[in-house]
């Protein structure tokens, strides 16, 4: 019998978790990344885009790699709605990848030329591994939360002392925001063996692939997790968990996943890159304006981009009612006018700066020397390509259709972070 299908487990992970053997492989890969193993693996890869000549034949097919999370909505909607073809582009069916490490590997090996990554991942790739990756837009805003197990009585982050929490990746917005919240509550994040005793004020963190989180919560292997949708909604619907806090209620309209491309395309194939981002921006705006339709489109009952049932994806996209999340009080800033997940593709420099500065203070494993040496202002301009997404938003006149835009200064904003 599967470990998650025991008689005292009220949910079946088969509703949304993939082949368990592959799940173990994902965990091994992510553990390798945490220990620096993936750094060595990436360092040994051949980087063909560094040696690409301008007159070499150009493969114009858009090849999308994505994880089964709503963060990928803009890319998936652009594919489903034919927006790439509208731009005159050829596009393959998007490839579902079950963990961040294999997605990174696939992108590094040029299996994919359009992906979504957790925002700190390209920071690590470009400045720790010298891999030529560019952020070309935001995949979404908000769209994550902290879910606690049904066995846990907690009303705030202060109640998480002595508990086991899972994060999807060390280099993630999730790890940054979670640790800031824990420290603010007087708790100490640690990374140690799960069997080692914890002090009452310590919280042990571990890496766990998103599909494994809800079943692990139901089985009480962890006490809580922070992750992207729809795995928070899955934790609520299928694992009996409760939302402790939405991250978009802590950091207003924050980025999480970003759209990434290779330098070779953004620098040498500008017309192609512009068309790609035109389609992505259209996908993002369509998702923002049609969340219910998009949820059904992405679900198992729709076009099957995500292995989740429509009811779970719909909750992940639309359920942001303060009445539904009063105990615990997961929404403290109703006046912020944010959604459970939103889609603004413009990559504001202030948010990149915030993430870089906070990442330097965040506990991760492996060698973090490269972080200490990073010049934040340099990274803001070197890592992100702003031209294509701005051009697309101008072309389709969508600035007023997304959230978080200052009409008097559309290209800048002030970061709001309140616990």
Automatic annotation (TrEMBL):
Please indicate which superkingdom the organism of origin belongs to: Bacteria
**Which family does the record claim for this protein?**
Belongs to the CmpA/NrtA family.
Gene Ontology terms, cellular component aspect? endomembrane system
Native species of this protein?
Thiosulfatimonas sediminis
SUPFAM superfamilies associated with the record: Periplasmic binding protein-like II
Cited Pfam families: NMT1_2
The record's subcellular locations are: Endomembrane system
Which InterPro entries does this UniProt record tie to the protein? NrtA/CpmA_ABC-bd_dom, TAT_signal
Q: Name the keywords, alphabetized.
A: Cell inner membrane, Cell membrane, Membrane, Transport
Protein known as = ABC transporter substrate-binding protein
